[in-house]
Amino acid sequence: MNNSSETLRRTPLHALHRELGGKMVPFAGYDMPVQYAAGILKEHLHTRQKAGLFDVSHMGQAFLAGDTAALERVTPADVAGLKEGGQRYGLLLTPQGTIKDDFMFSRLTGEDDLYLVVNAGTKEGDFAYIGGALAGAATLTPRPDRALLALQGPLAAEVLERHSPGVSALTFMNVVRASVAGAPVIVSRTGYTGEDGFEISLEGADAERVARTLLGEAEVLPIGLGARDSLRLEAGLCLYGHDIDETTGPVEAGLVWSIGKRRKLEQDFPAGARIMAEAANGTARKRVGIRPDGRAPAREGTEIADKTGRVIGRVTSGGFGPSLGAPVAMGYVESAFAADGTALNLIVRGNLLPATVTPMPFVPHNYHRPK
Hints:
Shape: globular
Radius of gyration: 21 Å
Strand content: 25-35%
Order of helices and strands: HEEHEEEEEHEEHEEEHEHHHEEEEEE
Strand order of the largest sheet: 10-11-12-9-3-13
């Protein structure tokens, strides 16, 4: 019988992960590092304090050519209004108006094509869905040959500037073609940690050389999936397949902000009228932040109850927040219990453990926005 790891895909940095002592686990069909020798706690805090390098090459990258505004057929984001050098977050909606995925799209200066990044576990389905919906108007070309690195943390700009002069002038959600350590790249000032940072798209053949260059800087440590998850949870960011999926809509998920102003008025996206009616009138449930009392974390799937013990929702992401020294969680509750400060109970092994609805992010975002 073959070892299951033999069937997992590998990123261009797979050998480097093993060389660095990465503990490898299956994730989204890939053999990926969950942590390195420092451990999840230290990797998390190092990223908050200095800079961490993440391999996110398992994500799906693609370019959209033709009538790129046709992407608005499947997303409520304002695609047509995106200016050169800009990047936006969008929701990929099913025909019923639920969330098929979330993704990033960019318009590079002087180029007609859009650059897209989608989630790893859904990328093949996403690309097929987009390609079918836009048939005759635009052509999507996946680029599995490209790698993707994320350099995150308050010292990320200082580090990257040494190897890509001028890149520190970028502000949050801006994107540019540049070079890093001599390799041609697409650099966006964005990330998934709540910290300032960059995502660096490049040819797979250049990935190891660039990664080694960045890891050679004293401020940088390699960071695995474990800390990536705890960082994004503290930042209040959704993880597809957990906090959002095809059973959730934009309003209950708290993602109405990603719907463009023009799109809200025109309602010309899947289930647009219903979604905007929900935005005006409310939904049966809402995604909320939760701070459990004590130090025991509430994991995904934990039932949420009111003071009487009646189940009113479920935790979708939960764990220990190293920056806070305390557990944090997010989940969906009946809307009547969604106000900040509402007392809840978490049902853990049959016991009711007190918790409180808390504003997100749990740790303030540190994005580099324009002055």
